[in-house]
Design goal:
This is Stage 0 sporulation protein A homolog. The protein has a five-stranded parallel sheet with strand order 2-1-3-4-5. A four-stranded antiparallel sheet has the order 9-10-8-11, with helices on both faces. It is of the alpha/beta class. The two termini are about 40 Å apart. The protein has two domains: about 120 residues, Response regulator (Rossmann fold, 3-Layer(aba) Sandwich); about 170 residues, Alpha-Beta Plaits, CATH 3.30.70.270.
């Protein structure tokens, strides 16, 4: 049985969600305040598969609740189910790496399908990462003292740094971090460069506006992802990061090659915009980092990449 915790101060809404999900054998724990929510989350966190959260709480700030969840490094997907229907609200929580954003009023089938899909994707990702980490995480040794060395032996741990991927930058996809660290190790060993690029579809307006994310944002994310995947052929790597945002790894790629990649993405965007006119309401914002120009440790590079992502979404 899957387990969900919902924070919403409207009892009828909690009842409706609980009634809907328990018909599908999904256990729902209810909370009407953040105090109650965090107590239950602490009690049940090893068994919770999904968090459902209302941003527009009557007496509390739902955005602060999201931030506190992330500060606690809780590795549980979050679905926003809210009456808050503004672009700023959506952009703000996207920075925190939420899994989905669903507006009230909602269709029962749509809500159920999206929740079940999010749980399945999360469980599948964790199982894959767990298997990969057994074989990979123990190999992540980063030489901090001799950048030009041609041999970095895995068994020699002295003067090297072991990175715990569960702690660092939880908002970035795990599969991205694993691949990025592996390629960074190779770049250090071979004295080459490696880059990472993050890009976001940003709406062409500065005005506060109403949005409908129930279908459009998910659809646009899928359309754009399918359209650009062929640009990132191996050994390059690309993955979705929430809604409208994508992050990639570019081995043996310097700053000039990153610009070439951006141009290819832009060309693909223009072509897709002709096929899907809704894309023309957006532009692509980019951020990128390159080792060793922007830093020589995983922490430094991922911090800079995350900062650039946040700048893009502002």
């Amino acid at each position: 049985m899957q387990n969900i915790i919902i924070l919403d101060d409207m009892s009828y809404m909690r009842y409706r969600v609980k009634d809907l999900l328990e018909e599908k054998d999904i256990k729902v724990y209810e909370a009407s305040t953040s105090f109650e929510f965090f107590n239950k989350l602490y009690e049940k966190k090893d068994n919770i598969d999904l968090i459902i959260l209302e941003l527009g709480l009557t007496r509390e700030d739902g955005f602060e609740v999201v931030e506190k969840i992330r500060e606690k490094n809780v590795d549980i997907p979050i679905v926003i189910l809210t009456k808050v229907n503004t672009r700023d609200a959506f952009a703000k929580v996207i920075q925190e790496g939420i899994s989905d954003y669903i507006l009230k009023p909602f269709d029962n089938k749509v809500l159920l399908d999206r929740i079940v899909k999010t749980i399945k994707e999360s469980k599948g990702g964790k199982e894959q990462v767990s298997t990969e980490k057994e074989s990979k995480v123990q190999k992540i040794y980063i030489n901090e003292d001799n950048e030009n060395t041609n041999e970095v032996k895995e068994e020699v741990v002295k003067e090297k740094e072991i990175i715990d991927l569960n702690v660092k930058e939880e908002e970035l996809p795990e599969e991205f971090k694993i691949y990025f660290v592996d390629e960074l190790n190779k770049a250090k060993t071979d004295n080459t460069k490696v880059s990472s690029v993050i890009f976001t579809l940003i709406k062409n307006t500065d005005e506060e506006e109403k949005i409908d994310v129930k279908e459009s944002y998910i659809t646009l994310t899928d359309i754009f992802y399918k359209g650009i995947k062929d640009i990132f052929k191996g050994p390059n790597f690309i993955t979705k990061h929430g809604l409208l945002t994508f992050v990639g790894v570019l081995p043996n790629c310097d700053e000039d090659k990153v610009e070439d990649m951006k141009n290819k993405i832009q060309e693909k965007y223009k072509m897709l915009s002709l096929i899907y006119p809704q894309l023309s309401q957006y532009h692509v914002g980019y951020g990128n980092v390159t080792y060793p120009v922007d830093g020589d440790t995983v922490e430094t590079l991922l911090d800079k990449l995350t900062d650039k992502m946040r700048e893009n979404i502002k």
